[in-house]
Amino acid sequence: MNLFEKYLRGRTASVLAYLIPIALSSQAFGNLTEKSSSGLYECHGSLAVFGKYIDTCLVSTLAAKDWYVNSSTGSDSLGDGTTTNPFKTIQRCIDEIPPVIKHKQHIYLSDGVYNESSRSPGEMPRPAVVYLNEHWVSGRTDIPGGVMDGYLVLIGESEEGTIIQTSNDYVYGIYSSHNEIGLQNLSIKAGSSATQALCTTHRSGSYVHADHVSFLGENLSRFGIIAEAGGWAELVNCTLKESVVHNVLVYAGSAINLAGESLVGGSNGAYGILATGYLQINAGTSVSSKVYIANGGVLTAQGASSNFVSLAQIDLSNASMNATYTNISGAIISYNSNIVFTASNWSSTFKLNGGLLRLGGAKSFIAPETASSVADPLTVSNGGVVQKDATTQIVRVGGVISAEKYNYVTNAINANSVAIPLTLVGGQSSSIVLTSVASRSGCTLGAVYGVFNNTPPPDGYLLTVTNVSADIELIEGSSSIIGTGGKVILGVANGESTSITFQWLSSIGKWVEISRSSPR
């Protein structure tokens, strides 16, 4: 279906009465401009046979217009979108607006439940109460003085009373593909367990700007808002809660920005927010459910000195996080991620498994408390690196000033000639601590375990082996090269080294010694 066909579908009789005779009389359609009293429509395009319509036609607005929809008193068949004769469904009103929006089109929704569409579910790839994939706007929305202004905006009478509701037939609330739309003072609510998502912004060029909108999963909708395939959403003073899987889902290449006094509540899934794309959380926003950033995802939490971002539990895996003026009340667990905390605080356990953590003016407690709620506020393992400035404070429960605690994989060597298993957990380095109740000889580096699943680690990976007990002799074997003589005795006695560091060289498939600690 081409652009003009889409435009003709659902148009009022007065518009069709004007367009069709011109086309029929000339057997062509081109360079059309509106001559009726509305002054709303124009078309510019190359000539084409009417039976094929006009592929290059651009039907656009000529003037700003306010539209009105009322789910109780409106009519899709007799209405014209005026205050005295409103449409019944939002979709009927949107389809009346020309595809190219050069002038501001505001759609005012009376209080009521909007759970129907002028389109049948089969007309849409993803059946939605509001389906957008045919409009192009000339500019972005804004909220001057608290009132949303833009080129395509839905404005509810009240956030609590104006409800866009899904059903068994329309399993999406708002679905926007390649389109931009503003939403203000309304709720999007799940009305059926078949609901897939309350709002979806799909593909590059799609932008949903919401202010004072409640996304209410009602423990029925799988998702609250989804940004996918390059879609973008900006939510200001919004509430998102009670979705079955995630309240917020951001796919790679997409972005969601939470701002103002927004609140992301709990969901039935493990995570209230999941992002493999870009997620920004701004001053005043509060997230009480768990956040998971993974697989290249980025979380930016940007608060202010007088208005912190408030987060609960955070999980990161191969991701990035940059937090400024942010309080985190739950546990933080990070795997091979890069994290920057500036003037930000956490009050529970922070586990850094590989990766890098930079702390500047950070604290392991949240005022008015003066100490953490746990004995070890920051633990580091698997080659994790912590860089902190002099103003960072790590204070254990009870008020004891502390530092980060380093945890290592420990292997008990209970016999001679043991092949020491290597547990590596991603990143670029790992450390292993050996223990033994008696001296051992002829031990070698064994198979790799952990995230690499018995496959070689990446080229250049560093492995440090430390012994804190009785002497352990480490010899080359088939998987390592050890300095002069092909062996080293690790121990705590005088004249012995306590640790040795290897680097994996993929070209030869071996661990090669690059350093060892100075003999005691």
Give a short overview.
The protein is mostly beta strands and 520 residues long. It is built from 3 helices and 47 strands. The relative contact order is 0.05.
Q: Beta-strand level of the residues, as a percent range?
A: 35-45%
Q: Which structural class best describes the helix and strand composition?
A: mainly beta
Based on Cα principal axes, name the global outline.
elongated
Radius of gyration: 31 Å
What is the number of helical segments per DSSP (H or I, 4+ residues)?
3
Can you tell me the residue ranges where pLDDT is under 50 for at least 5 consecutive residues? Answer: 1-7, 12-57
User: Mind describing the biggest β-sheet?
Assistant: 18 strands, parallel
Chain oligomer state: single chain
Distance between the termini: 81 Å
pLDDT averaged residue by residue: 87
Q: How many beta-strand segments?
A: 47
Helix content: under 10%
Structural description of this entry:
The structure is a single chain. This protein is mainly beta and 520 residues long. The protein contains three helices and 47 strands. It has an 18-stranded parallel beta sheet that branches. Strands 7-11-13-15-18-21-24-27-30-33-35-37 form a twelve-stranded parallel beta sheet. A hairpin with a 4-residue loop joins strand 46 (499-505) and strand 47. The model is unreliable at 1-7 and 12-57 (pLDDT under 50).
